[in-house]
Amino acid sequence: MARATTLWALLYTGFGLACALSGISLFPYGGDSGAPWPGWAAVAVGALGASAGGAVLRYGLRPALRVLLRVVCGLAAISAFSLLMDVITLMLGQGVDSWAATANKALAAAGAVLLAATARSDREPAGTAVREPSAAPRLVQRAVWAGTLAFVPYAAMKLLWASGGTFAGVTGEEMLAASERNGASGVFLALESWGLDPTALLAALGVFLLWGLARPWGQVFPRWTLFLRGRRVPPWLPLAPALLGAATLAPYGVVGVGYLALATAGVVTMRRGDLPSSGDALLVGWIGMVAFGVHGIALIIAARSYRLRTRPAGRPARRSARGTGADAE
């Protein structure tokens, strides 16, 4: 893992350096469009990752290096923010704002996984027994219920527009025209015309994932999976989208709620966008941001519980912090 992390870090450093020197923006939004600092930030994160990975290869995974790996992992995770939004737009056939920015998020997300794995590479399971499928604790399931119910108003609003109804002063026809004007794909527009909002469908998938992390059926393929039924679900299969969703939705929703609170208090001005008034924009914004924030936090809680419940039975043993470099690879 340390070798793979070092190779990633060198690649990421080169990518950031090329973008910074060529003037390619990795943050094409607002007043920072074209600014070179995101490229240099990528260089700094990559250099730190390469230094940490190289030191682990040489000296083994010492406590200070573990801390450094986790810090760089956090920085990489921040750099991968909103990757899920780009993935969703690509799935719906729409273009992203910047291919360079999307590539930066994808590389940063891969690096966060590698850095986290390297930071834990000296931990081996003491037992190999497989735990029986189990439900999450009651408090975790309450968080899952909260994450589920938070999406109900959002899905209802979207489906109301998709079915031709009116909400926040906008009819379904006006919302469809706005989506077409804003460059929505043919797939998106077709689903909307059939009364199926794609974002509501994605919200339903998010709820399905959330309950899969909390219930026993999320650890064993159910009957309807045909040839896979009864087999164990590889833990990374639900955890990968859960962590990607949590890393995007939780900060997006929390920051959005903070901004909406300021706008509601009159500290900042809320842009109305395609809505008739700022008040309508606030209403729609609150519904969306609360859904994203609560669901993202619930994903974090459920993913942690799922990881603990699917670990091999037996407490993990840690190697000596003074192990050789080969031990950490």
UniProtKB/TrEMBL annotation:
Lineage of the species this protein comes from: Bacteria, Bacillati, Actinomycetota, Actinomycetes, Kitasatosporales
PROSITE patterns: PROKAR_LIPOPROTEIN
Membrane-crossing residue ranges in chain numbering: 7-27, 39-60, 67-92, 199-218, 239-262, 282-303
Protein name, UniProt field: Uncharacterized protein
Keyword Transmembrane: yes
UniProtKB keywords: Membrane, Transmembrane, Transmembrane helix
